[in-house]
Batch of 4 targets.
Target 1
Amino acid sequence: MNPKRFLNRLVTLSLIASTVFLYNCNKDDDNPEEMQEGETPTFTADIQGIMAGNCTGCHASTPTNGAPMSLVTYNQVVDAVNNRNLVSRINSTTAPMPQTGRMNATLRQTIEDWVNAGMPEN
Ligand code: HEC
């Protein structure tokens, strides 16, 4: 192969390589959006379980241990988000819920994502 032809090939190949590279970068940028749509938390699938595992020990159907309300049904949890600062209490370092200490960041983020998505029930 003569040097000129070799150079032409090289240029062509690098053009293809950078096109593929740029295309993949674009795809990565798009992906998070697509994933989020598929992963919107719902009350039934995600939130109910978090409440049952961390909150209803006190915020039961009949609240115990001085808890002022229940966090069992969909409407009760929505009401606590809207009127009782549920999101700031689960993130509070001075008066956290549960009182024994904040839940891990993943669980708290799931609740926040659910609230930001408009609190879908199912
Ligand atoms: C060990 C018992 C206990 C657990 C577990 C518990 N709470 Fe509470 N919660 C209380 C008590 C007692 C109060 C009232 C005193 C206060 O506001 O700190 C309260 C208050 C609250 C309030 C404020 C209510 C208002 O009207 O001001 C919110 C919101 C709340 N809890 C949410 C939660 C959530 C969400 C969880 C689980 C992630 C949880 N709690 C777990 C006992 C508990």
Target 2
Amino acid sequence: MKRRILMATVVASISMMSFASFAAETGETIFKAKCSSCHPDGGNIIKPGESIKGIKDTKKITKKIRKGGGGMPAFDAKTVSDADAKSVADYIVKTFKK
Ligand code: HEC
């Protein structure tokens, strides 16, 4: 019985680990494909004052992805799914610190 619990724990942690690395990769991949043309290295080539560095609120990012504006196109759920928007937001917060 004890052994079975141990096995379940091992399986659960392995799948959690692979999920975490998968999510991180996806955020980076989406950023490079859809955002980095205007935000290379977290900057902003259209409005240099509006860089995406140092943002800590992922909701602010996912909102901006959906709404766009001020020279940024809006991305609908067909272009960037909710899960992908969340991954990109996590990637930005983690990667582009001030
Ligand atoms: C065509 C160029 C372009 C693309 C592509 C683009 N952005 Fe932007 N982004 C901008 C511009 C211009 C602004 C400034 C908008 C403003 O002044 O309101 C901006 C602003 C932002 C902001 C708000 C920064 C702040 O501090 O308020 C976030 C967050 C952001 N972009 C994230 C993204 C993400 C994530 C993607 C990819 C899914 C993306 N952008 C793709 C041009 C772009």
Target 3
Amino acid sequence: MTAFELPAGTRVIVGLDAIDRLGELAHEVHGRDAAPRTLVVTDPGIVAAGHVDRACRILAGVGIDAAVFDAVRENPTSDDVDACVDAARAHRTELLIGLGGGSSLDTAKGCNFVLTNGGRIHDYKGHGLAAEPMLPLIAIPTTSGTGSECQSYALIADATTHMKMACGDPKAAPRIAILDASLTRSQPHAVTACTGLDAITHAVEAAVSTRGGDASRRHAREAFRLTIDALPRVLAHGDDLDARADMHLGAAHAGAAIELGMLGAAHSAANPLTAHYAITHGHAVAMMLPHVIRYNAGDDAVAAAYRDLFASAGRVAPDADAGLAAFALADAIEALVREAGLPLSPAAQGATMDAVQTLAAEAAAQWTARFNPRAVDATAFESLYRAALATEADPT
Ligand SMILES: [Fe+2]
């Protein structure tokens, strides 16, 4: 078992069956003699997989009788946060545990803002708007994708408009993240594929974003090196726990990379595809990423950054031609989407050339586009969508 600490102060505990340390760690973050009043925030699928029972048994073993809020939904809204706050208040909660995918972790974080600082989650849209101390949070991800366990932001949608709000504060970052890859075996194959593609996209976008610095690039390189190698192994053999451990650690590093370095145009272009055609987030970002890489590689310095990233994973020589290396990286991402058995073109899920202008206008308005290393406007997004739609729709 290994451990390391992130800039936001999150201590990351890594190892198979690391969840067995949950009881000891819960007492440690609480820091008092009495057992912390604890709420486990999760979803029904995680309950069905047996992970919640296991966590509660471990906690009971150290005298913690935890309550469970198991009503987390995908893409949590302000209403979901309010329901979680009600449960946390009713239990007089002193410690939060987020157990599940990114939605469970974000709901626990969102609940922490409102529970400790009052008002509603909308009040914390932005960064650093929580004046009062927040409760300790332990994050236990069961998917290898969002990297929310290494971030101080909760992504919560307004319940009425469904616009996503990024609510961040250094105090909202989990005190401890437990990366136990054995918990990811319960993911369906499609979830493994889409969350894994999302993690790789986080690594590639954060590696070249305008916001990035040395620390974010270090996390991005480590994330990319781990995930580009491990994702095909996990897709081929879902029981390969070594590969799952690499994916889990890689996704966490990618989370740290985007916490520090932000994202880019692939995420901006993906969100309208998800909104209009219900294309899963990880699939949508991976569909757009190869086109974004080829577009960004038009800038020599960005092409060199892609070459360096690809070289750091041992896929091209460090002195390879930057433009060719960047295009090889784009091809490698397309190959991964194919290996996942997913279509490369949004046309396979109903998008048409007629929609390009609308999609491009929406993509240009996304905040992530601001950190793309080459300027992107609506015209550039139109070209990116046209290129994606022209890609053969058949995954085989
Ligand atoms: Fe993402």
Target 4
Amino acid sequence: MKIRVRDVGEIPEEVEFEQDTSELNPRLEKGTSRDYECRVPARVGMTQYRTGRDLFFDGDLETTIVGRCARCLEEYELPVSTPFRYLLAPRGDQVAGSAGEDAEISVYEGEEVDLAPLIFERILLSLPTTPLCNEQCRGLCPRCGINLNESECNCPASEGDPRMAIFRTLRVDRIDG
Ligand SMILES: [Zn+2]
Ligand SMILES: [Zn+2]
């Protein structure tokens, strides 16, 4: 979303818009795979106003990101909802410092401000490092590949399998008792 600097007045104004997020997808790719994908735009609601040449944008953004679970490889929807507060000063100007302590400070140049990079940054910051459909996701069986969230399989537990560790503990308990 590009906003013309002269359209930002001194009286705070409510603005709502949708920000296309498809440009974010190349940044979410990791080689041949990706953890997250943006398929719908972000909805942004904010208040904008100026003080002198400093521009303020204060609001919230909401979108839904599609994640691919690192354990079971299934896609799941991740709702993202995050507030933002930006002060944009013209490049080269001293920032007056009246933005409030929680505002992020950035710069603009020329007659237009592009809010897309700032919105993208907010979205990226709100994504977990490892995508998980659920904290308790049991993942795929390393032998037959079955999704263990959906059904059990009869594969023998391997050495590194946590199920095996439980058996080992039980056996020790029995000897001690
Ligand atoms: Zn999963
Ligand atoms: Zn299996």
